[in-house]
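Risk register update: the risk that structure generation would not scale has been downgraded. Supporting records follow, first protein first.
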Amino acid sequence: MGDFVVDADVLARARFGTSRLAETVSALAILARPEPRTWHRRWRDRHLEAFRRRLAGDPTAAALVRHAFGRTWTADFLTVAPAAPDLALDEELAYLGTLDDARIREDLEVVARPLPAPLLEATGLAGTAATLLRWVWETTVEPEWPRRRRVLQADIVSRTAQLSGHGWSGALEGIGPGVRWRGDGRLQVNKRWYPTRDIRDADLMFIPAHCRGGWVAWKLPERYAVVYPVTGIFATDPAPAPDALQRLLGQARADILVRAGQPISTSALVALTGLPLGSVGGHLRILLDAGLLHRRRSGREVLYWWTDAARLLVASGRPSARPRR
């Protein structure tokens, strides 16, 4: 298994944050690989034809994509740890622009060899990769980035709350395949065997993304990141609140009720809905008074979820739940 050796200073500096590059690489991988997760399929179907046309017009980019994603490894030039959370994509791509063709080929050969002629003969491979990543971002991710970012931030809020109440073992519980806090200064980042890395002088970030699985990113020797799939209630938005429910409760209150189908915190609701904390709190109090929500404290967070009455109310508004005539 792959472990990071960390110390108190690394953990004190460690933080959760979003990354446009990680989100873009995740999107590229979902488009490039078959059999997406169920919750990624509709998004992939919407963009797959345009993606295939884009690669058909750029054989070098198509070869890069085919060789950048392996079964257990992704080319290092795509998995670079950011210097800070929530940077602009071009800021994150700056390091890629410094890599020469030999370095790009070296990274690709770790994933799969031999390299085909387009990759052996082409020049400016870093520029080709950066241009493709910008296309993926601008075409498939950026139009829905505000919603995606709210989902990612909700996950970060939840993880940070777990960190405050239960330490790193709680914050990392269920975070991704093979990732767990082992204690004694060891963070397991992969179930497969890789050499242990001592990162006690480096910075560490945890990055949620809409990805199939996680990966480890770095910019040696000073920066490391663990990218993990945003999960559970944060993996995708729920179906919109039924029209009848919106007319009964109002759009904002109905949206909050629909999102509480599974236990969810006030801070997560703020991040997901974009509403002010005071507004969310007011709507929650009304839903509690109406007997539509349960409420329970969990560490520093307060969780809300449906009562049986809420479950029936939401279900009755769905078109499939209406009796046929």
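Supporting record for the second protein:
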Amino acid sequence: MIRFIILLSIAFFSFVPQLLAQFEGEILFELRQTDNGRTDVSEFSITAASDRIYISSNRNLNLMSGLQSDGLLVRNDLQDFVFNTGTNEALKVSKEDLDSLMDMIERFAGASSAGENEKFDWENRLIETGNRQSYLGYEVAEFRVKGEQADQYASIWMTTDIKVMWGLLSDVWRRAGDRFSDSELPVELVMNSNSFPLLIEVFDVGEEVASLSAVRVEKDRFDRSVVELSDDKRMVSLTEMMMNMFRQR
């Protein structure tokens, strides 16, 4: 079930872009996971401005051996990802780099592996409850996704008042996401251009075991500078980074 909320969280940051009003502001989220009586809490935020998105966390993400990042900048205008890896250094991964990587994975995996996962059973596993409430000043509607067991489900509260143009992130998810998820995950529900999930709660045998919740939405006072890079930031390509790691071994 913990895996279920992680997959939903990944999809949460991957909306399909359309010609809609772009949300500009910062949203702070809290992820709570309970396992064996212990609750783990982490925070991350997303800042959207024009054609760039910045996602940061209070915990570092392991990109590869010996390489960590605490923030990801998605530059849709330049078609690349920039990972913060140090005070004066950042890893830049272009869309061309990702396409080449996926081509290589597909060649090794074989064309037959593409699309081999079962499709989500919309008719039997998704329920639009009709429940509505106000959450952080936004009207949200509830959708329930049944889990693998009868007493497992996720409650997803979505608003139509926030729309984010994710661009490059959604392109990558459409190509690579299906390889890392399965029929547990209703990707299209959270990857739509007309609504945005502000609260996801996962229940197992009547107990909440995980939640992903927005705790603040700031549209006026937020730091727009995070979607820009300082002139002294050294950009390192994926190829250069990997070559440096091999030399150090």
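The two ends are 38 Å apart (CA to CA). On this basis the risk owner (M.S.) recommends closing the item.
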